[in-house]
């Protein structure tokens, strides 16, 4: 009986990690001016460890990046600045 209790406890404690949600980070990138900028920013974001999906848009001058819930958003800004652009986190929402 005691063993069962610990098993249930372990499952309950581990569940949030197992079903961890992703988040969508929207980043303002004001100095993005042409489709080449979009390509290099996409490339930089997509090659960043942990990034699930990334899409920069010239129309909105923003990039939307899907990363795991616990991901350090700063890594995205670092990747962007390495390509010569400057990004600013505009918002973070949870994503399915
Ligand atoms: Cu450009």
How would you explain this protein's 3D organization?
There is one protein chain. It is elongated and about 65 Å long. It is α+β, with helices and mostly antiparallel strands. It is 40% helix and 30% strand. It has one domain: Alpha-Beta Plaits (2-Layer Sandwich), CATH 3.30.70.100. The chain contains 3 helices and 4 strands, in the order H-E-H-E-E-H-E. The site of copper (II) ion has 4 residues, from helix 2.
User: Helical stretch count?
Assistant: 3
Q: Which sequence of SSEs, written as H and E, runs from N to C?
A: HEHEEHE
Percent of residues in β-strands = 25-35%
Ions, cofactors and other bound molecules: copper (II) ion
Number of strands: 4
Counting structural domains, the number is 1
Low-pLDDT windows of residues: none
CATH topology, anyone?
Alpha-Beta Plaits
SS-derived structural category: alpha+beta
Task: State the strand order across the main sheet.
Answer: 2-3-1-4
Q: Termini distance?
A: 37 Å
The biggest sheet, with number of strands, parallel, antiparallel or mixed sense and barrel status, is: 4 strands, antiparallel
- Estimate the mean pLDDT confidence: 90
The rough form would be described as elongated
Instruction: State the CATH class.
Output: Alpha Beta
